[in-house]
Design goal:
By secondary structure, the protein is α+β, with helices and mostly antiparallel strands. Helices cover about 20% and strands about 30% of the residues. The radius of gyration is 41 Å and the shape is extended.
Length: about 425
Protein backbone atom coordinates (compact mmCIF):
# COMPACT_ATOMS: atom_id res chain seq x y z
CA UNK A 1 0.00 0.00 0.00
CA UNK A 2 1.17 3.67 -0.54
CA UNK A 3 0.84 6.73 1.78
CA UNK A 4 -1.57 9.56 1.03
CA UNK A 5 -0.28 13.05 -0.06
CA UNK A 6 -1.81 15.99 1.93
CA UNK A 7 -1.97 18.29 -1.06
CA UNK A 8 -3.76 16.14 -3.68
CA UNK A 9 -5.37 12.72 -3.46
CA UNK A 10 -4.07 10.23 -5.90
CA UNK A 11 -6.17 7.51 -7.59
CA UNK A 12 -5.31 4.25 -5.89
CA UNK A 13 -3.77 1.43 -7.91
CA UNK A 14 -6.01 -1.63 -8.36
CA UNK A 15 -5.29 -4.44 -5.95
CA UNK A 16 -5.56 -8.09 -7.16
CA UNK A 17 -7.47 -10.68 -5.17
CA UNK A 18 -5.24 -13.00 -3.24
CA UNK A 19 -5.87 -16.05 -5.57
CA UNK A 20 -4.84 -13.97 -8.64
CA UNK A 21 -1.76 -12.65 -6.98
CA UNK A 22 -0.64 -16.12 -6.17
CA UNK A 23 -1.20 -17.29 -9.76
CA UNK A 24 0.67 -14.26 -11.20
CA UNK A 25 3.45 -14.69 -8.71
CA UNK A 26 3.70 -18.41 -9.49
CA UNK A 27 4.01 -17.81 -13.21
CA UNK A 28 6.34 -14.84 -13.02
CA UNK A 29 8.49 -16.41 -10.30
CA UNK A 30 8.84 -13.00 -8.60
CA UNK A 31 8.78 -13.01 -4.82
CA UNK A 32 7.84 -9.89 -2.80
CA UNK A 33 5.28 -8.40 -5.12
CA UNK A 34 4.54 -5.74 -2.44
CA UNK A 35 7.17 -4.06 -0.24
CA UNK A 36 6.80 -3.99 3.51
CA UNK A 37 6.07 -0.54 5.08
CA UNK A 38 8.79 0.94 7.26
CA UNK A 39 7.29 0.82 10.75
CA UNK A 40 10.36 2.27 12.57
CA UNK A 41 10.49 5.63 10.81
CA UNK A 42 8.12 8.06 9.18
CA UNK A 43 9.45 7.52 5.68
CA UNK A 44 7.16 6.27 2.89
CA UNK A 45 7.06 2.62 2.04
CA UNK A 46 8.51 1.47 -1.23
CA UNK A 47 5.92 1.51 -3.94
CA UNK A 48 4.41 -1.87 -4.85
CA UNK A 49 5.34 -3.52 -8.11
CA UNK A 50 2.52 -3.57 -10.55
CA UNK A 51 1.10 -7.02 -11.48
CA UNK A 52 0.10 -8.20 -14.94
CA UNK A 53 -2.60 -6.24 -16.60
CA UNK A 54 -6.10 -7.63 -17.04
CA UNK A 55 -5.52 -8.01 -20.77
CA UNK A 56 -2.36 -10.05 -20.20
CA UNK A 57 -4.04 -12.40 -17.77
CA UNK A 58 -7.01 -12.83 -20.08
CA UNK A 59 -4.69 -13.65 -22.98
CA UNK A 60 -2.81 -16.14 -20.82
CA UNK A 61 -6.03 -17.87 -19.78
CA UNK A 62 -7.20 -18.05 -23.38
CA UNK A 63 -3.90 -19.70 -24.37
CA UNK A 64 -4.22 -22.23 -21.56
CA UNK A 65 -7.81 -23.02 -22.56
CA UNK A 66 -6.84 -23.39 -26.23
CA UNK A 67 -3.97 -25.79 -25.41
CA UNK A 68 -6.20 -27.82 -23.08
CA UNK A 69 -8.89 -28.08 -25.74
CA UNK A 70 -6.35 -29.21 -28.34
CA UNK A 71 -4.94 -31.91 -26.06
CA UNK A 72 -8.46 -33.08 -25.12
CA UNK A 73 -9.48 -33.26 -28.76
CA UNK A 74 -6.41 -35.32 -29.63
CA UNK A 75 -7.06 -37.77 -26.78
CA UNK A 76 -10.76 -38.07 -27.65
CA UNK A 77 -10.03 -38.65 -31.34
CA UNK A 78 -7.52 -41.36 -30.53
CA UNK A 79 -9.93 -43.05 -28.09
CA UNK A 80 -12.88 -43.02 -30.50
CA UNK A 81 -10.70 -44.21 -33.37
CA UNK A 82 -9.46 -47.14 -31.29
CA UNK A 83 -12.79 -48.19 -29.77
CA UNK A 84 -14.92 -47.81 -32.91
CA UNK A 85 -12.32 -49.11 -35.33
CA UNK A 86 -12.38 -45.95 -37.48
CA UNK A 87 -9.48 -45.20 -39.80
CA UNK A 88 -8.41 -41.61 -38.92
CA UNK A 89 -6.19 -41.27 -41.99
CA UNK A 90 -9.19 -41.71 -44.28
CA UNK A 91 -10.91 -38.75 -42.60
CA UNK A 92 -7.83 -36.52 -42.97
CA UNK A 93 -7.60 -37.47 -46.65
CA UNK A 94 -11.24 -36.53 -47.19
CA UNK A 95 -12.27 -40.13 -47.92
CA UNK A 96 -14.93 -40.30 -45.22
CA UNK A 97 -15.27 -42.87 -42.46
CA UNK A 98 -13.58 -46.21 -43.03
CA UNK A 99 -13.57 -49.04 -40.55
CA UNK A 100 -10.22 -50.42 -39.49
CA UNK A 101 -10.27 -54.18 -40.17
CA UNK A 102 -10.12 -56.25 -36.96
CA UNK A 103 -8.95 -59.85 -37.22
CA UNK A 104 -11.01 -62.33 -35.22
CA UNK A 105 -9.36 -65.43 -33.82
CA UNK A 106 -12.06 -67.59 -32.24
CA UNK A 107 -10.83 -71.16 -32.54
CA UNK A 108 -7.96 -73.48 -31.90
CA UNK A 109 -7.29 -75.32 -35.11
CA UNK A 110 -4.72 -75.98 -37.78
CA UNK A 111 -5.69 -73.72 -40.66
CA UNK A 112 -5.15 -75.18 -44.10
CA UNK A 113 -3.74 -72.94 -46.81
CA UNK A 114 -6.37 -71.50 -49.09
CA UNK A 115 -9.35 -72.95 -47.22
CA UNK A 116 -9.70 -71.48 -43.73
CA UNK A 117 -9.99 -67.74 -43.18
CA UNK A 118 -10.03 -65.73 -39.95
CA UNK A 119 -13.66 -66.78 -39.48
CA UNK A 120 -13.70 -70.60 -39.52
CA UNK A 121 -17.48 -70.94 -39.35
CA UNK A 122 -17.96 -69.15 -42.68
CA UNK A 123 -15.15 -71.09 -44.35
CA UNK A 124 -16.23 -74.45 -42.96
CA UNK A 125 -19.81 -73.81 -44.11
CA UNK A 126 -18.66 -73.10 -47.67
CA UNK A 127 -16.38 -76.14 -47.66
CA UNK A 128 -18.71 -78.73 -46.14
CA UNK A 129 -22.24 -77.70 -47.17
CA UNK A 130 -21.97 -79.27 -50.66
CA UNK A 131 -21.30 -82.63 -48.94
CA UNK A 132 -24.34 -82.51 -46.62
CA UNK A 133 -27.67 -83.64 -48.07
CA UNK A 134 -31.32 -83.55 -47.08
CA UNK A 135 -33.23 -86.84 -46.79
CA UNK A 136 -37.01 -87.23 -46.94
CA UNK A 137 -38.77 -90.52 -46.28
CA UNK A 138 -42.28 -91.85 -46.68
CA UNK A 139 -43.73 -94.86 -44.93
CA UNK A 140 -47.17 -96.44 -44.75
CA UNK A 141 -48.39 -97.28 -41.25
CA UNK A 142 -51.71 -98.42 -39.86
CA UNK A 143 -53.68 -96.00 -37.76
CA UNK A 144 -56.12 -96.66 -34.93
CA UNK A 145 -58.75 -97.75 -37.42
CA UNK A 146 -56.29 -100.12 -39.18
CA UNK A 147 -56.12 -97.85 -42.18
CA UNK A 148 -52.88 -97.30 -44.07
CA UNK A 149 -51.62 -93.77 -43.52
CA UNK A 150 -48.58 -92.24 -45.22
CA UNK A 151 -46.12 -90.81 -42.72
CA UNK A 152 -43.31 -88.49 -43.84
CA UNK A 153 -39.90 -88.26 -42.17
CA UNK A 154 -37.02 -85.84 -42.38
CA UNK A 155 -33.28 -86.16 -41.86
CA UNK A 156 -29.82 -85.39 -43.17
CA UNK A 157 -26.84 -87.23 -44.61
CA UNK A 158 -23.14 -86.88 -45.40
CA UNK A 159 -21.62 -87.88 -48.75
CA UNK A 160 -19.16 -90.72 -48.06
CA UNK A 161 -18.12 -91.66 -51.60
CA UNK A 162 -18.30 -89.74 -54.86
CA UNK A 163 -20.20 -92.59 -56.55
CA UNK A 164 -23.33 -91.94 -54.49
CA UNK A 165 -22.87 -93.55 -51.04
CA UNK A 166 -24.27 -91.41 -48.21
CA UNK A 167 -23.99 -91.83 -44.41
CA UNK A 168 -27.11 -91.22 -42.33
CA UNK A 169 -28.80 -92.53 -39.16
CA UNK A 170 -30.61 -95.83 -38.97
CA UNK A 171 -33.63 -94.18 -37.37
CA UNK A 172 -33.91 -91.75 -40.33
CA UNK A 173 -34.50 -94.50 -42.93
CA UNK A 174 -35.81 -97.31 -40.75
CA UNK A 175 -38.87 -98.97 -42.36
CA UNK A 176 -38.97 -96.32 -45.10
CA UNK A 177 -40.85 -97.28 -48.28
CA UNK A 178 -39.54 -94.32 -50.29
CA UNK A 179 -36.40 -92.21 -49.85
CA UNK A 180 -35.69 -88.90 -51.57
CA UNK A 181 -32.34 -87.16 -51.37
CA UNK A 182 -31.68 -83.47 -52.08
CA UNK A 183 -28.08 -82.69 -53.06
CA UNK A 184 -27.36 -78.96 -53.07
CA UNK A 185 -29.95 -77.14 -55.17
CA UNK A 186 -30.54 -80.05 -57.55
CA UNK A 187 -33.85 -81.84 -57.87
CA UNK A 188 -34.61 -84.67 -55.47
CA UNK A 189 -33.24 -88.06 -56.46
CA UNK A 190 -34.44 -91.45 -55.32
CA UNK A 191 -32.32 -93.33 -52.81
CA UNK A 192 -32.08 -96.93 -51.67
CA UNK A 193 -30.91 -98.38 -48.38
CA UNK A 194 -27.64 -100.31 -48.69
CA UNK A 195 -27.49 -101.42 -45.06
CA UNK A 196 -28.41 -100.40 -41.51
CA UNK A 197 -26.92 -100.99 -38.06
CA UNK A 198 -29.19 -100.46 -35.07
CA UNK A 199 -26.30 -101.03 -32.66
CA UNK A 200 -24.68 -97.72 -33.66
CA UNK A 201 -27.72 -96.04 -35.30
CA UNK A 202 -25.92 -95.81 -38.64
CA UNK A 203 -27.13 -96.51 -42.19
CA UNK A 204 -25.95 -96.09 -45.78
CA UNK A 205 -28.14 -94.76 -48.60
CA UNK A 206 -27.17 -95.02 -52.30
CA UNK A 207 -28.18 -92.55 -55.03
CA UNK A 208 -27.55 -92.83 -58.75
CA UNK A 209 -25.10 -89.93 -59.04
CA UNK A 210 -21.42 -89.61 -59.94
CA UNK A 211 -18.63 -87.20 -59.03
CA UNK A 212 -20.26 -86.01 -55.82
CA UNK A 213 -18.25 -83.83 -53.44
CA UNK A 214 -17.06 -86.14 -50.68
CA UNK A 215 -16.81 -84.81 -47.12
CA UNK A 216 -13.36 -84.63 -45.55
CA UNK A 217 -13.53 -87.16 -42.70
CA UNK A 218 -11.37 -86.43 -39.66
CA UNK A 219 -10.83 -88.26 -36.37
CA UNK A 220 -11.69 -87.83 -32.69
CA UNK A 221 -8.35 -89.17 -31.45
CA UNK A 222 -6.93 -85.71 -30.73
CA UNK A 223 -10.28 -84.00 -30.12
CA UNK A 224 -10.46 -81.92 -26.93
CA UNK A 225 -13.31 -80.54 -24.88
CA UNK A 226 -13.82 -76.84 -25.62
CA UNK A 227 -12.91 -76.98 -29.31
CA UNK A 228 -15.16 -75.39 -31.90
CA UNK A 229 -18.00 -77.60 -33.18
CA UNK A 230 -20.09 -76.80 -36.27
CA UNK A 231 -23.28 -78.72 -37.03
CA UNK A 232 -24.89 -78.92 -40.48
CA UNK A 233 -28.15 -80.47 -41.60
CA UNK A 234 -31.84 -79.84 -42.21
CA UNK A 235 -33.54 -79.10 -38.87
CA UNK A 236 -37.33 -79.12 -39.33
CA UNK A 237 -36.68 -79.36 -43.08
CA UNK A 238 -34.66 -76.13 -43.34
CA UNK A 239 -31.90 -77.37 -45.63
CA UNK A 240 -28.23 -76.35 -45.40
CA UNK A 241 -28.60 -74.96 -41.88
CA UNK A 242 -25.37 -74.22 -40.00
CA UNK A 243 -25.07 -73.88 -36.21
CA UNK A 244 -22.00 -73.61 -34.01
CA UNK A 245 -20.92 -74.34 -30.46
CA UNK A 246 -18.19 -76.28 -28.73
CA UNK A 247 -17.28 -79.84 -27.87
CA UNK A 248 -18.95 -80.14 -24.46
CA UNK A 249 -17.77 -83.64 -23.52
CA UNK A 250 -16.39 -86.88 -24.95
CA UNK A 251 -17.12 -90.59 -24.45
CA UNK A 252 -20.71 -90.03 -23.34
CA UNK A 253 -23.02 -93.00 -22.76
CA UNK A 254 -26.74 -92.43 -23.36
CA UNK A 255 -29.47 -94.93 -22.47
CA UNK A 256 -33.07 -94.33 -23.49
CA UNK A 257 -36.28 -96.07 -24.46
CA UNK A 258 -36.59 -96.38 -28.23
CA UNK A 259 -40.14 -97.71 -28.31
CA UNK A 260 -42.03 -100.89 -27.61
CA UNK A 261 -40.44 -102.78 -30.50
CA UNK A 262 -36.81 -102.42 -29.52
CA UNK A 263 -37.02 -101.48 -25.82
CA UNK A 264 -33.97 -99.91 -24.15
CA UNK A 265 -31.11 -98.63 -26.30
CA UNK A 266 -27.64 -97.70 -25.12
CA UNK A 267 -25.18 -95.70 -27.22
CA UNK A 268 -21.62 -95.29 -26.02
CA UNK A 269 -18.56 -93.21 -26.84
CA UNK A 270 -20.66 -90.29 -28.11
CA UNK A 271 -19.50 -86.70 -28.65
CA UNK A 272 -21.53 -84.15 -26.70
CA UNK A 273 -21.96 -80.63 -28.13
CA UNK A 274 -24.00 -77.51 -27.46
CA UNK A 275 -24.21 -76.65 -31.17
CA UNK A 276 -27.94 -76.47 -31.93
CA UNK A 277 -29.25 -79.86 -33.10
CA UNK A 278 -32.97 -80.32 -33.75
CA UNK A 279 -35.24 -82.91 -35.38
CA UNK A 280 -34.05 -83.14 -38.99
CA UNK A 281 -30.37 -82.75 -38.08
CA UNK A 282 -30.06 -86.51 -37.58
CA UNK A 283 -27.52 -87.97 -39.97
CA UNK A 284 -25.90 -84.60 -40.61
CA UNK A 285 -22.31 -83.53 -40.04
CA UNK A 286 -20.54 -82.30 -36.93
CA UNK A 287 -17.31 -80.57 -38.03
CA UNK A 288 -14.19 -79.17 -36.42
CA UNK A 289 -12.59 -75.78 -37.11
CA UNK A 290 -10.66 -77.18 -40.07
CA UNK A 291 -13.76 -78.35 -41.94
CA UNK A 292 -13.30 -82.04 -41.18
CA UNK A 293 -16.31 -84.15 -40.24
CA UNK A 294 -15.70 -85.53 -36.74
CA UNK A 295 -19.15 -86.92 -36.01
CA UNK A 296 -22.59 -87.86 -37.35
CA UNK A 297 -25.35 -86.07 -35.44
CA UNK A 298 -27.70 -88.63 -33.94
CA UNK A 299 -29.80 -87.48 -30.97
CA UNK A 300 -30.53 -84.76 -28.44
CA UNK A 301 -31.39 -84.68 -24.76
CA UNK A 302 -34.54 -82.63 -24.39
CA UNK A 303 -37.71 -82.34 -22.34
CA UNK A 304 -39.47 -80.45 -25.12
CA UNK A 305 -38.40 -82.39 -28.22
CA UNK A 306 -36.27 -79.50 -29.46
CA UNK A 307 -32.84 -78.03 -28.78
CA UNK A 308 -31.94 -77.49 -25.11
CA UNK A 309 -28.17 -77.27 -25.41
CA UNK A 310 -27.31 -80.99 -25.24
CA UNK A 311 -26.77 -82.89 -28.47
CA UNK A 312 -24.82 -86.02 -29.35
CA UNK A 313 -22.90 -87.26 -32.38
CA UNK A 314 -21.42 -90.64 -33.34
CA UNK A 315 -17.60 -90.39 -33.61
CA UNK A 316 -16.55 -90.48 -37.26
CA UNK A 317 -14.00 -93.21 -36.44
CA UNK A 318 -16.88 -95.51 -35.46
CA UNK A 319 -18.97 -94.38 -38.43
CA UNK A 320 -16.18 -95.01 -40.94
CA UNK A 321 -15.68 -98.59 -39.73
CA UNK A 322 -19.39 -99.44 -39.67
CA UNK A 323 -20.16 -97.77 -43.02
CA UNK A 324 -17.38 -99.66 -44.80
CA UNK A 325 -18.86 -102.92 -43.50
CA UNK A 326 -22.37 -101.93 -44.59
CA UNK A 327 -21.15 -101.13 -48.11
CA UNK A 328 -19.11 -104.33 -48.39
CA UNK A 329 -21.56 -106.85 -46.94
CA UNK A 330 -24.80 -105.02 -46.08
CA UNK A 331 -24.37 -105.51 -42.33
CA UNK A 332 -21.92 -104.67 -39.55
CA UNK A 333 -20.53 -106.99 -36.89
CA UNK A 334 -19.60 -105.92 -33.37
CA UNK A 335 -17.36 -107.75 -30.91
CA UNK A 336 -18.47 -108.69 -27.41
CA UNK A 337 -17.26 -110.75 -24.44
CA UNK A 338 -20.67 -111.93 -23.29
CA UNK A 339 -21.38 -110.19 -19.99
CA UNK A 340 -23.80 -107.76 -18.42
CA UNK A 341 -22.29 -105.45 -15.84
CA UNK A 342 -22.26 -102.17 -14.01
CA UNK A 343 -19.77 -99.63 -12.69
CA UNK A 344 -17.94 -100.00 -9.39
CA UNK A 345 -17.45 -96.64 -7.67
CA UNK A 346 -16.99 -95.45 -4.08
CA UNK A 347 -20.71 -95.60 -3.34
CA UNK A 348 -20.99 -99.12 -4.73
CA UNK A 349 -17.91 -100.23 -2.81
CA UNK A 350 -19.24 -98.78 0.44
CA UNK A 351 -22.68 -100.34 -0.05
CA UNK A 352 -21.30 -103.80 -0.83
CA UNK A 353 -18.38 -103.54 1.60
CA UNK A 354 -15.60 -104.13 -0.89
CA UNK A 355 -12.21 -102.43 -0.96
CA UNK A 356 -11.96 -101.85 -4.71
CA UNK A 357 -13.73 -98.63 -5.75
CA UNK A 358 -13.32 -98.72 -9.55
CA UNK A 359 -13.81 -101.11 -12.46
CA UNK A 360 -16.72 -102.97 -14.10
CA UNK A 361 -18.41 -105.69 -12.08
CA UNK A 362 -20.08 -108.62 -13.85
CA UNK A 363 -23.79 -108.95 -13.08
CA UNK A 364 -24.44 -111.80 -15.50
CA UNK A 365 -22.33 -114.04 -17.75
CA UNK A 366 -23.82 -115.08 -21.10
CA UNK A 367 -23.73 -118.86 -21.42
CA UNK A 368 -21.18 -120.08 -23.98
CA UNK A 369 -19.92 -116.53 -24.54
CA UNK A 370 -16.22 -115.58 -24.56
CA UNK A 371 -16.17 -114.67 -20.86
CA UNK A 372 -17.95 -117.88 -19.89
CA UNK A 373 -15.52 -119.99 -21.93
CA UNK A 374 -12.60 -118.20 -20.24
CA UNK A 375 -13.94 -119.07 -16.77
CA UNK A 376 -15.15 -115.63 -15.67
CA UNK A 377 -18.01 -115.51 -13.15
CA UNK A 378 -20.63 -113.23 -11.70
CA UNK A 379 -19.22 -110.55 -9.33
CA UNK A 380 -15.78 -110.63 -10.94
CA UNK A 381 -14.55 -107.02 -11.24
CA UNK A 382 -12.76 -106.23 -14.51
CA UNK A 383 -9.97 -103.68 -13.98
CA UNK A 384 -7.92 -104.09 -17.18
CA UNK A 385 -8.75 -104.99 -20.78
CA UNK A 386 -5.92 -105.67 -23.22
CA UNK A 387 -3.46 -103.52 -21.20
CA UNK A 388 -5.97 -100.67 -20.88
CA UNK A 389 -7.19 -99.63 -17.41
CA UNK A 390 -10.94 -100.04 -16.90
CA UNK A 391 -12.41 -97.46 -14.52
CA UNK A 392 -16.11 -98.10 -15.20
CA UNK A 393 -18.54 -100.04 -17.38
CA UNK A 394 -18.53 -97.33 -20.07
CA UNK A 395 -14.76 -97.53 -20.54
CA UNK A 396 -15.04 -101.33 -20.88
CA UNK A 397 -17.70 -101.01 -23.60
CA UNK A 398 -15.57 -98.48 -25.50
CA UNK A 399 -12.48 -100.70 -25.22
CA UNK A 400 -14.40 -103.70 -26.58
CA UNK A 401 -15.92 -101.74 -29.48
CA UNK A 402 -12.47 -100.53 -30.51
CA UNK A 403 -11.56 -104.15 -31.24
CA UNK A 404 -12.69 -106.51 -33.99
CA UNK A 405 -14.41 -109.85 -33.98
CA UNK A 406 -11.79 -112.58 -33.58
CA UNK A 407 -9.24 -110.45 -31.69
CA UNK A 408 -7.50 -112.17 -28.77
CA UNK A 409 -7.31 -110.01 -25.64
CA UNK A 410 -6.05 -110.24 -22.07
CA UNK A 411 -8.49 -109.45 -19.27
CA UNK A 412 -7.45 -108.72 -15.68
CA UNK A 413 -10.13 -108.98 -12.98
CA UNK A 414 -10.47 -109.21 -9.21
CA UNK A 415 -12.20 -112.14 -7.50
CA UNK A 416 -12.34 -112.38 -3.72
CA UNK A 417 -9.80 -109.53 -3.48
CA UNK A 418 -7.27 -111.42 -5.63
CA UNK A 419 -6.22 -110.46 -9.17
CA UNK A 420 -6.64 -113.02 -11.93
CA UNK A 421 -5.80 -112.92 -15.64
CA UNK A 422 -7.48 -114.71 -18.54
CA UNK A 423 -7.13 -114.64 -22.32
CA UNK A 424 -10.23 -114.73 -24.47
CA UNK A 425 -11.27 -114.34 -28.10
CA UNK A 426 -13.87 -111.73 -28.99
CA UNK A 427 -16.98 -113.12 -30.65
CA UNK A 428 -19.61 -111.43 -32.81
CA UNK A 429 -22.39 -109.88 -30.80
CA UNK A 430 -25.72 -111.57 -31.58
CA UNK A 431 -28.23 -109.44 -33.48
CA UNK A 432 -31.05 -107.99 -31.45
CA UNK A 433 -34.46 -109.44 -32.35
Amino acid sequence: MVDKDDSKPEKPEPVWESEDVEVTSELAKEPDVLSKPDVTGGSKAKPAKKGFSTLSVAFLLICIAFISAFIGAAISTTFVTFTLGVDLSSILKGEGLKATPIERVIYRGKARSGSISTDPITSVAKEVQPSVVNIRTENAVSNYFHEDVTVSGQGSGVIFRKDGYIITNNHVVQNAKEIWVTIGTDKDVSGTVVGTDSETDLAVVKVDRKNLKVADLGSVKDLQVGELAIAMGSPFGFERTVTAGIISALNRTVTFSSGADTGIKTYTNLIQTDAAINPGNSGGALCDADGRVIGINTLIYSQTGSYEGIGFAIPIDTARNVVNQLIEKGAASHPYIGILGTTVDKDYAKLHKIELDYGAIIAEVVKSGPADKAGMKKEDIIIEFDNEEIKDMESLIVAIRNKSVGDKVKVVFVRNEKEKTVNLTLAEKPKMP
